[in-house]
Amino acid sequence: QKLAAECQSAGYPGTLIPYKCDLSVEEEILSMFSAIKTLHQGVDVCINNAGLARPEPLLSGRTEGWRTMIDVNVMAVSICTREAYQSMKERNIDDGHIININSMNGHSVVPQSVVHFYSATKYAVTALTEGLRQELREARTHIRATCISPGLVETGFAFKLHDNDPERAAATYESIRCLKAEDMANAVIYVLSAPPHVQIGDIQMRPTEQIS
């Protein structure tokens, strides 16, 4: 709500409407889409941005942490995609767009045990986006599917991953000049502004100074 007020006071076009939703709970996701239908008719563009990593290695990780990553990074993406498509279909929207915010960890496995399971969930997003593209073609729609795969972006991500070591989390963003949220927003705008006959499959982007 604070961010919505900031956007309005800054004079940005459009309106940011906050809605509380726990993406690990399907009932809350469905409630959110129902509210969107009631208040705004439906969804034309869906950007699946939520994602998190828990420090749970493959050899010693807790099942609870793995399940949380699956629920948010894979299941929520799939549920939101399904509901967004159904919203477009019932209103005959043929030029919608579904954008999954992926990760470079969805294309390569780095030698850091705390993100190996997270990487597996992002590999799933890579596969889900291509599978979605194929199904949209089979359905004879012009709805497009894209994923955007960033490297290190300065957000609260590291503070969630290293929630017991905030100094380590802060150091993650101090080691190099990271991507910013604005860089991601610009990539989304680029994807959405492509001509109707152009479908961008994946944008892979890193900070220039990032090694892996």
TrEMBL record:
It catalyses: 17beta-estradiol + NAD(+) = estrone + NADH + H(+); 17beta-estradiol + NADP(+) = estrone + NADPH + H(+); a 3beta-hydroxysteroid + NADP(+) = a 3-oxosteroid + NADPH + H(+). It comes from Chloropsis cyanopogon. SUPFAM superfamilies: NAD(P)-binding Rossmann-fold domains. Pathway: Steroid biosynthesis; estrogen biosynthesis. The keyword 4Fe-4S does not apply. This is Dehydrogenase/reductase SDR family member 11. One of its GO terms (molecular function) is 3-beta-hydroxysteroid 3-dehydrogenase (NADP+) activity. Its EC number is 1.1.1.270, 1.1.1.62. Keywords: Oxidoreductase. InterPro entries: NAD(P)-bd_dom_sf, Sc_DH/Rdtase_CS, SDR_fam. The keyword S-adenosyl-L-methionine does not apply. Catalyzes the conversion of the 17-keto group of estrone, 4- and 5-androstenes and 5-alpha-androstanes into their 17-beta-hydroxyl metabolites and the conversion of the 3-keto group of 3-, 3,17- and 3,20- diketosteroids into their 3-hydroxyl metabolites. Exhibits reductive 3-beta-hydroxysteroid dehydrogenase activity toward 5-beta-androstanes, 5-beta-pregnanes, 4-pregnenes and bile acids. May also reduce endogenous and exogenous alpha-dicarbonyl compounds and xenobiotic alicyclic ketones. Gene3D superfamilies: NAD(P)-binding Rossmann-like Domain. Belongs to the short-chain dehydrogenases/reductases (SDR) family.
